[in-house]
Amino acid sequence: MMSETSVPLPPADPGAASALLDDPQEWPAFGRPRPLQEGAPGSAAHDPAAGIWESHVVLGGMHCAACALTVEDALRGVPGVLQAEVSAATHRARVVWDARRVRPSGWMAAVARAGYPALPAMDALARELRRREGRKALWRWLVAGFCMMQVMMYAWPAYVAQPGDLSAEMERLLRWASWVITLPMMIFSCGPFFSSALRDLRLRRVSMDLPVALGMGITFVVSTAGTFEPSGIFGREVYYDSLTMFVFFLLTGRWLEGRLRDRTAGALEAVMNRLPDSVERRGEDGVFTRVAVRRLAAGDRIRVLPGEAFPADGCIERGSTQVDEALLTGESTPLPRGEGATVAAGSYNLRSPVQVRVERVGGTTRFAEIVALMEAASAQKPRLAQLADRIARPFLVGVLVAAGLAAAWWWPRDPEHALMVAVAVLIVTCPCALSLATPVAMLTAAGALAREGVLVRNLQGLEALAAVDTVVFDKTGTLTRDGIGIAAVHPAEGFSHAEALALAAALARHSLHPLSRALVEAAGALPGTAARWRLSDVREVAGQGLVARVVDAEGRRAPATLRLGKPQGPGESGVQQVSLCAEPVEAGGSGAEGTGWPAEVARFDWREDLRADAAGVVHRLRAAGVAVELLSGDRAEAVARVAASAGIDTARGNCSPHDKLARMRALQAEGRRVAMVGDGLNDGPVLAGAHVSFAFGRAVPLARSRSDFVVMGDQLALVERSVQLARRTLRVVRQNLAWAAAYNALCVPLAVVGWMPAWLAGLGMALSSLLVVANAARLARAARTAVPGQPAAPAAQPRLGAV
């Protein structure tokens, strides 16, 4: 997305292209259905043509915040488009639309009529067109450089010649030669600026290309008039050298800016495009043929070759290999995977071909969830960027007015000088640096965190995280490892060890809580409960555990309700326990009386270990001026023990979700800026209530949906690094905004009084934008710098050969 020109639509039949875009089977390639509660009646999951969809597209011809506002206005004016967000930094748009009222071809056509063609963000054609436009940008820059050097050769004699050294014929010849050399640059290198400006005038709007094109046009017209009519009002001097230098500097800045943006914020797109375009699928005759990935369905058998990414979640049926799952876990070490092992979409096959049975495809994979988070973040606008967007159009109008006033002021004295002053004002005041100052820095930080294993769901969260002075941790699965182990089983009379564990595991399979996973793992190959008991209506209740109906399969016992959660009575001191209790279905009963079940079917002792980096993270956070607290629903004794091991002074146990939220609000009432780190279901309310929140990648979906950051791996240090990078990001944003303001405050007066020639104005404009992007690029390097005393986080960078 480094192009400064409009990306043309594919040279195909428009009717065929529209039919392809409007095919509901193609919509998952560049979007996903929204949950039912977020839209009008109708579920896209069941009927794609009668639901709410969220799509992401890549836009061509964008340069500034004014362009983004224009595209947003065009989209929001289409009936059926519910939301539209456009990022000028990534040239991407997020569109929420109602499939019952509009089709993708409808709102894409509206964007194209506004002058900004759109292509599906996940489309291989869009990536190829961006590469093609990048090559065109390079050619325009090379042509401008060649023309500039030639024109400077012809202009040099006029600078060094003494009066009488150059005859009138020789001076006229040099002017004509300069005009001939400048003409192809105006047609080829400057063509995109003029076409964009004409489009803006036709649609009665203002964008950043309009003042630039006016400056180029005025300079060329004045110089042409001086060439054709040396004795006329503009014949005293020509400005081909200033014009060619200005164009060359401007194209240099835009080309380098695009390169830097692709290397920094473009890391987001590199991760999102990890899936292959096609894969080998086995047919009914046993022969493998290559098909598009979007045509895969659950149950298909596919063959994944070394160097390819797995296109879907599945299970290996034949072969063994090593897999890179850095995107999913943050761990860059290759992992062995043999027959029967599961593989995830987006991970890479590193060693040998394997045959995989597809289990989940499209939007149901974990990779799709990661992509959804990153796409949503790439189209978001932080608060400071929204402010820049709001002032972009008025600022550009002010630029045109200031240039007109400057020209009017100088015209009575010297018309030629008046026009050149207006050109300098038009060029030097373009707010490129201002519009890029915030989004480029934010997206660079988001891309750097994504490479380390932290997904940014909300760009605004980076700004909030920089101001955090208190971090609140959950205990289980956050400060402690996910690897909880079952130490002992204490079944009630009438239940065997294996039966009690299998019954608890039957409930635990319906939860992602670390303790539930430990129960399922401990049950292992033990006989299940299906032969003797039937479980139904299994649900997870925040702060209480799992609840299910159980009925004797032989009908000899009355129905009962099982609850897997905290022990009702006091447990053994110093031992962490969870109990499986039975309660009657009828309200008002006591214990399990009348059901034939004991009140407590079993009690399980479990153990957990503090994460190896927890104490170091807490120490470094406190050294950085951040207070640390621990809130947990576990027993107070266990919480105190973990807090002491981690070096946390303030810790509270036996906290219900309401208790956690109350403590959070109390801290906020004291003026604290609070970040919450959790992963459990009961953390949902407090994650939503915090100023900024983290959820670990294995957290339940509710916790992830309420968080601003998702930590994909198991490294707690990534939370602390995120805090550090957020603070650096906000410093960079402030530096960029200060530079943009200082640049305009210094250069505008110089241009108005006529002390800044056009070429110097162009150089200043290009350097200001380049400085903003280069300053933001430092964030990517800072993110890869290890914290003293802590090993660097693994970089989850995609391999170029496989992307």
Q: What portion of residues is helical? A: 40-55%
Mean of all residue-level pLDDT scores: 75
How many whole angstroms does the radius of gyration measure? 32 Å
Q: Largest sheet, order of strands side by side? A: 15-27-26-25-16-23-24
Range of strand content:
15-25%
The total beta strand count reads 27
Q: Helix count, per DSSP?
A: 25
The major beta sheet can be summarized as:
7 strands, mixed
Shape annotation: elongated
The parts where pLDDT drops under 50 for at least 5 residues are 1-14, 36-45, 587-594, 786-803
Q: Separation of termini? A: 17 Å
Q: By helix and strand content, what is the structural category?
A: alpha+beta
Write the layout of secondary structure elements.
Blueprint: H1 14-21, E1 31-33, E2 52-59, H2 65-76, E3 81-87, E4 92-98, H3 104-113, E5 118-120, H4 124-160, H5 168-189, H6 191-202, H7 209-228, H8 240-263, H9 266-272, E6 278-282, E7 288-292, E8 301-304, E9 313-318, E10 321-324, H10 326-329, E11 335-337, E12 342-343, E13 348-349, E14 354-360, H11 366-378, H12 383-410, H13 415-428, H14 432-452, E15 454-456, H15 460-466, E16 470-473, H16 475-479, E17 485-491, H17 497-508, H18 514-523, E18 533-541, E19 545-552, E20 560-565, E21 576-584, E22 600-607, H19 614-623, E23 627-631, H20 636-646, E24 650-652, H21 657-669, E25 674-678, H22 684-689, E26 692-696, H23 701-705, E27 709-711, H24 717-752, H25 758-783
Parallel strand pairs: 16-23, 16-25, 23-24, 25-26, 26-27
Antiparallel strand pairs: 1-2, 2-4, 2-5, 3-4, 6-7, 6-8, 8-14, 9-12, 9-14, 10-11, 10-13, 15-27, 17-22, 18-19, 19-20, 20-21, 21-22
